[in-house]
Design a protein that fits this description.
The protein is an alpha/beta fold. Helix content is 31%, strand content 18%.
Length: 241
């Protein structure tokens, strides 16, 4: 399969201009001209995939405690917008089903970061892959990424059709081999630790090189010159800089 993902990817659904990981953020990003989006996916206690970056609910909702221990019937009624601004008071958390509807309507290309709470890696990886097999209809298959190798392994074992990416905080020489062992097609690494040699090493193994979270024009230029394949950004204006 050819690489179907755009170069520019909005972080957490354009989560600086709107509350992160909510459908409002995807609407804002899409209105700004983005087609590629990154977001974080967990499973509720009853197995519903939903969007949340942190293990706990306090930072981005009016809920408390671990998100993964609550059923979706509870999570869907939380306020995930008031923390951001008055404009988004009452914005609910997003389910993957809700995001899938937007992806299908707008032909979005999604990077779904598998974001398991401790002890949940296998459950989240397998659960998201199985949910996608049953429900995904958008033309572009989502790229499943994770810092947790166990989550990627479980996703591949549950349904091998979904492309995978290994997330790294720091580049290391074994990254290409680790990614290939996990059946990944890409490595997504923190921008500060990527250089031309690292990107060339990935390309030599047939892997794509992506970077997060790139918010400065000078860093965009450096990584472009180094041959990067995609950039995740909070800056909706940076694409046109």
């Amino acid at each position: 399969m050819a690489w179907p993902y755009p170069f520019w990817i909005a972080h957490r659904g354009a989560g600086k201009q709107a509350p992160e990981n909510t459908l409002a953020a995807f609407r804002v990003g899409h209105a700004a001209g983005f087609r590629g989006f990154e977001c974080d996916v967990q499973l509720s206690a009853d197995g519903v995939p939903f969007l949340l970056h942190d293990d706990t609910l306090e930072r981005t909702t009016n809920g408390q405690g671990l998100g993964c221990v609550l059923d979706w019937a509870v999570l869907q009624h939380l306020d995930a917008g008031s923390w951001h601004s008055a404009t988004h008071v009452g914005e609910p958390p997003a389910s993957l089903a809700g995001l899938a509807e937007l992806a299908s309507a707008w032909n979005l290309a999604l990077n779904l970061e598998l974001k398991p709470s401790p002890g949940q890696a296998e459950r989240v990886g397998a659960g998201v892959a199985r949910w996608l097999r049953a429900h995904w209809q958008a033309p572009c298959p989502p790229l499943l990424s994770s810092f947790e190798p166990e989550a990627l392994h479980a996703a591949h074992a549950a349904d091998a059709q979904w492309p995978l990416a290994l997330l790294l905080e720091q580049w290391h020489a074994n990254a290409p081999a680790q990614a290939l062992a996990l059946h990944a097609r890409a490595v997504v690494c923190h921008h500060a630790s990527l250089d031309p040699a690292a990107i060339a090493a990935l390309h030599a193994q047939g892997l794509k090189a992506l970077s997060y979270t790139v918010n400065e024009a000078a860093e965009v230029q450096r990584l472009r010159a180094a041959g990067i394949d995609g950039l995740i950004t909070d800056r909706l204006d940076l694409r046109d800089a």
